Amino acid sequence: MQDLPLLYLQGGSIVPVGRPIQYVGEESLSDDLILLIALDDHGKANGILYEDAGDGYDFYEGEFLLSYYEAELESSVVTVRVSRSEGSWRRPRRALHVHLLLGFGATVGSDLQTAFNEWERLEIRKISAIFKKSYR
What we know:
Layout: E1 13-17, E2 33-38, E3 44-51, E4 65-74, E5 77-86, E6 96-103, E7 106-112, E8 121-124, H1 128-135
Parallel strand pairs: 2-6
Antiparallel strand pairs: 1-2, 3-4, 4-5, 5-8, 6-7
């Protein structure tokens, strides 16, 4: 395991994370995507992901994808969804890994092998016992 710096997230944040890229063209739109989610005191979070080709000026012509993510805790279920998108790109098919940060260094992870362009919303269940017992 690598020694990594501490990362502090403000409640209400969703941070999209991909694998490290060393040069343009190394990445693939089908690479896995991780969403780090830190809910606020009201059980909500949001974040934005911008994607384009990484070179050229096609983004001026709308060749990009800007995704707005929302997460909400309601009745012990966290729902994650893309609330809206901008640009002409279609959402790529890729695996989504959701990591819900509960505080005090605890996380609940859920690896979802689903196509991004096929889901409207995603529900993460089975967290209520951990969340209510240890971190509230």
